[in-house]
């Protein structure tokens, strides 16, 4: 009989891990304090954009992210098939735009090392950028074009993941209140806020920005912090934009329904997920440098979520040496949607005792202890 795996947290990471584990023949239970997808995962812009966002260094994090981007097309197809739910997944390509001559060197350096990783990228002049996206600002002097970068509609993706998990027979418990760890020695024992107990063989910790709460239990240093992201959306009268546009001050993502998502601020506000005037103004005061027509428009929707940031910017993915039946998969910061397929596959490999697809030593959950 397959092992019983408890997954703590029903965000995109917990649901993806649960889906993969169930497919591999394990019994899987997801324990969620509130609603699945109700935190960072449902708030995301849904960019699958490691080439724009993680462009500084070809390290193990870049490898993890690139591998996940390349897994995404098949992964999302599988989720759609199993859930029988559709959600937007668009291989739109992206433009990483720059405004100053000094930024060109950084793009050229990127192009050199990213090409060695088989990345398709092209440095475009201002004129070539305008051919791709005619309404972009004249202040833009160049852009890197990444045809591989894509996006999903995050709330739809997470909802389909939940449905796919249920279809396969994953048990999902929501609205449990705070779930506490009681023991992880022989068996794993957890207790919900209402006193319900859950028992299994192994535990996968996917509690996002809340993972630090387990520091005392494991006597580990778990520097994962919530970084609030405030974000907004515009309703365009027609589908005017085709690509993700990424700049150092913010990004826009055009969705199939004609809305343009504009993200996202970064601030420290504890676990508050409210939207502030200042946070949204940071976006609306800048975005006309991307598309001048935005100056005349007002966002029709604003929201916020808590990114699970880590002290060194790398996620916590791996088994504990002190308790081999405990796996961390948390701290995905700005890229949890992108990293959901690779994280699920790594968790599946760890539980199954197989080598992982990519190196994960750099992401050890014990690296700060
Ligand atoms: P969460 O979605 O926060 O899920 C964690 C879950 O654990 C929560 O549901 C919580 O209730 C539950 N939980 C916590 N503690 C307990 C407990 N003790 N008991 C039971 N349940 C518990 N990423 C991208 O890849 N692309 C993007 O374009 C992108 N844009 C973003 C834009 C914004 C504005 C924000 C805020 C984030 C964005 N991200 C993006 C980042 C991405 O959303 C996160 O990295 C990802 O959602 C993290 O997923 P998670 O499952 O770890 O966390
Ligand atoms: N990855 C986009 C964001 O976190 O805002």
Question: What report would you give on this structure?
Answer:
This protein is of the alpha+beta class and 369 residues long. It has an 8-stranded mixed sheet with strand order 6-7-5-15-16-17-14-18. Strand 15 (244-247) and strand 16 (250-254) form a beta hairpin. The chain has helices at 12-23, 40-43, 50-53, 60-83, 101-116, 126-132, 154-168, 215-218, 277-284, 340-352; strands at residues 4-8, 27-31, 47-48, 89-90, 94-98, 122-125, 142-146, 150-152, 171-173, 180-183, 188-191, 197-200, 202-205, 224-235, 244-247, 250-254, 259-263, 301-310, 316-319, 326-330. It is 29% helix and 26% strand. The chain has a domain at 4-76 and 154-224 and 312-363: FAD/NAD(P)-binding domain. It is globular and about 65 Å long. Bound molecules: flavin-adenine dinucleotide (FAD) and glycine. The site of glycine has 8 residues, from loops.
Topology:
Layout: E1 4-8, H1 12-23, E2 27-31, H2 40-43, E3 47-48, H3 50-53, H4 60-83, E4 89-90, E5 94-98, H5 101-116, E6 122-125, H6 126-132, E7 142-146, E8 150-152, H7 154-168, E9 171-173, E10 180-183, E11 188-191, E12 197-200, E13 202-205, H8 215-218, E14 224-235, E15 244-247, E16 250-254, E17 259-263, H9 277-284, E18 301-310, E19 316-319, E20 326-330, H10 340-352
Parallel strand pairs: 1-2, 1-13, 2-9, 5-15, 13-20
Antiparallel strand pairs: 3-8, 4-8, 5-7, 6-7, 10-11, 11-12, 14-17, 14-18, 15-16, 16-17, 19-20
Helix pairs in contact: 1-7, 1-10, 4-7, 4-10
This protein binds flavin-adenine dinucleotide (FAD) and glycine.
């Amino acid at each position: 009989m397959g092992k019983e795996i408890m997954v703590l947290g029903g965000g995109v990471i917990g649901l993806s891990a649960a889906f993969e584990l169930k497919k591999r023949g394990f019994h899987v239970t997801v324990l969620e304090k509130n609603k699945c997808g109700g935190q960072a995962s449902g708030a995301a812009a849904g960019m699958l954009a490691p080439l724009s966002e993680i462009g500084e260094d070809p390290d193990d994090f870049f490898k993890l992210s690139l591998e996940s981007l390349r897994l995404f097309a098949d992964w999302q197809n599988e989720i759609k098939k199993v859930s029988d739910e559709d959600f937007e997944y668009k291989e739109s390509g992206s433009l990483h735009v720059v405004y100053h001559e000094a930024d060109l060197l950084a793009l050229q350096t990127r192009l050199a090392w990213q090409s060695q990783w088989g990345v398709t990228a092209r440095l475009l002049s201002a004129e070539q950028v305008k051919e791709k996206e005619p309404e972009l600002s004249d202040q833009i002097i160049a852009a890197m074009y990444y045809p591989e970068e894509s996006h999903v509609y995050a709330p739809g993706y997470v909802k389909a993941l939940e449905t796919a998990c249920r279809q396969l027979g994953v048990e999902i418990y929501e609205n449990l209140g705070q779930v506490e760890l009681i023991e992880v020695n022989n068996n794993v024992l957890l207790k919900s806020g209402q006193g319900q107990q859950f028992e299994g063989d192994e535990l996968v910790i996917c509690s996002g920005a809340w993972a630090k709460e387990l520091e005392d239990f494991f006597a580990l240093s778990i520097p994962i912090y919530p970084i609030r992201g405030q974000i907004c959306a515009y309703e365009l009268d027609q589908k005017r934009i085709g690509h993700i546009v990424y700049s150092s001050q913010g990004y826009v993502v055009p969705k199939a329904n004609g809305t343009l998502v504009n993200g996202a601020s970064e601030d420290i506000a504890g676990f508050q997920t409210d939207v502030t005037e200042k946070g949204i103004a940071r976006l609306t005061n800048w975005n006309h440098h991307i598309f001048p027509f935005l100056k005349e428009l007002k966002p029709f929707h604003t929201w916020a979520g808590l990114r699970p940031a880590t002290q060194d910017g790398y996620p916590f993915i791996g088994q504990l040496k002190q308790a081999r039946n405990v796996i961390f998969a948390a701290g995905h910061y700005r890229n949890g949607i992108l990293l959901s397929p690779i994280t699920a596959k790594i968790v599946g490999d760890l539980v199954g005792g197989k080598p992982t697809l990519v190196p994960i030593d750099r992401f050890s959950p014990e690296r700060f202890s």
